[in-house]
Amino acid sequence: MHGPNLLNWMNPRRATMLADLATLVSAETPSRDKTLLDPFATMLAGRFQALGGKVDLIDNSAGGNHLEAWFAADAQLDLPPALILAHFDTVWPRGTLADRPFRIDGPRAYGPGSYDMKASIILLEAALTGLRELGLTPRRPIHVLITSDEEIGSPTSRSLIEASARDAAHALVLEPPLPGGLLKTARKGVGGFTIEIEGKAAHAGIEPEKGVSAINELVLQIPRINALANPAVGTTINVGLIEGGTTPNVVPARAMARVDVRVTTMDEARRIEDAFHELQALTPGASVQVTGGINRPPMERTPAGRDLFERTRQIGRSLGLELGEGSTGGGSDGNFTAALGVATLDGLGMPGAGAHAIDEHILIESLPERAALLACLLLEL
Ligand SMILES: [Zn+2]
């Protein structure tokens, strides 16, 4: 077990890791801004090349470029690679740094995208550097994907992630952990549906009977939609946005709702998708059109995922870490890999808090131990 050696190597490097984190946080990377994403991907490519990786920038005309890197590709052992998933986009718009630059305050380091998940990229760099400098060869080739669009549902990276996962022994996802540093072994699936209602416009004063109110129809549909929830099995529904009508004296011809759905099992995903697409108008003359679906399948607990977590917990003990696990309602790219049957462990990023919130931060103290943990996983799994 090389855990203690790796931890000893990481311990004096906290300040270096923080300086590297400052560099990454100080370059903004909103998910839809290619002019900011592409230079960042290029910068990352340089950093990973300097660590001895075989690095490719993946051109993406529909969004920011993605980064792919291979390490230990010449490992003698003929084993399938470990897939490491990270993303460099953040939910923060251009200009956020002007109000909230990177800053250190006591035990915490703050900044947009620090916790979700630029600190994770720093952990990976530190892990790879530590292994190299200590002359330790990972057990299997390491396939790294750092993508540019996770925060908007991975529209352009999903196929790349899935193709990579099919060849991998397991997927290690560097999203932040749960409170207390708990690893994520289950995630809800995420769906989005749009309900569009068409009625018929008419003058509200002169001949309202000739109209069909799309708003009234939508109001009838909403209880039916909410009734699809089954919180006992983790299925929740949020009608998060409604719109409709034009002006008070016109019977509204159009109305629409957008709905967020979370599910814990594929069975529930199918039930919900079927139910949404079977919604029918209740008002004569109105029509209902439903689009959307479950876009991230649930990451369910599987025997292979459980085994991966148990081995990780053993490795954590060699570093003096008692790792726990938990589930979350949020989705990540781990949902895609788990749905393919690939053993997936998520939450390997930095402890902290405030994902997508203005107090986003990491806990500085944990940098060495989380970097050492990741290095040990690359070495031994
Ligand atoms: Zn994230």
From TrEMBL:
Gene3D superfamilies attached to this UniProt entry = 3.30.70.360, Zn peptidases
Q: Record keywords: Nucleotide-binding included? A: no
Please give one Pfam family short name: Peptidase_M20
State the SUPFAM superfamilies in the record: Bacterial exopeptidase dimerisation domain, Zn-dependent exopeptidases
Active-site residues, Swiss-Prot/TrEMBL: 89, 150 (proton acceptor)
**Molecular-function GO term, any one:** metal ion binding
- Keywords from the UniProt entry: Hydrolase, Metal-binding
| Domain spans labelled Peptidase M20 dimerisation | 185-278
Keyword Metal-binding attached: yes
Protein name (Swiss-Prot/TrEMBL):
Acetylornithine deacetylase/succinyldiaminopimelate desuccinylase-like deacylase
